[in-house]
Amino acid sequence: MNGTRRRVAQQIWSAIHIHSSSKTGSSHSHQLLDFPCLVHQQRGVKVNGSDVKLGNIIEKNGRLHEVIKAQHTQHGRGGATIQVELRDLESGLKSTERLRTSESIERVRVEDKSFQFLYEHGDTVFVMDPKNFEQVELSKEIFGKRAAYLTDGMQVTVSFHEGRALSASVPTRVTCTVVQAEPSFKGQSASAQYKKLILENGRTVMGPTYLEVGDKIVVNTLDESYMARASKS
Fold first, then answer.
1. What residues make up the domain containing 117?
2. Where is the Elongation factor P C-terminal domain (predicted)?
3. Checking CA distances to 38, which of 12, 58, 153, 230 falls within 20 to 30 Å?
């Protein structure tokens, strides 16, 4: 029995050795966690498609994706589906998927940490951990469109998985200044209740026709929609 165990152990060690050597070119580097047949990593929890929400990190087709849009659609007798827009966290590529409400999806467990935004340089965002004042560099890409709403001192939330920063978000409600607005005309149809507004950060939102250049508005950063006119301080 002991001889059998030794042979099995030798076979496992040999497999790890070959796998590690092929990746690093060195016989002294053994990466057990990279060997999927031997180690099963519990990434997250199984949820129904109906429970997938904006901002979730899910695993699909063996890859991690951030849900950047989620819309429930009813198909009569055909049942409901969830149409989601995903961003591949490795490649940055976006795709659209249609999930059944009863479909089993693996939602990845993440650890959310709060940081204070300091500044950005090129494609890098610099934040500070308010607990120990340590500065951390993040890829601007993990903020997505939300990077446009970063302002000095803003509190941001970074989602980590196995020590890696997967995504980052800004507050849902952000106050912005209108720098350009489409003109309003008397006699506009009742359907023309919104017009295009360009914000100080270059982003475009649709807002009420009475808004003008210089007005401050509150924007929902999740979908970049107008929420309200900011109160004057």
1. 111-169
2. 174-229
3. 58
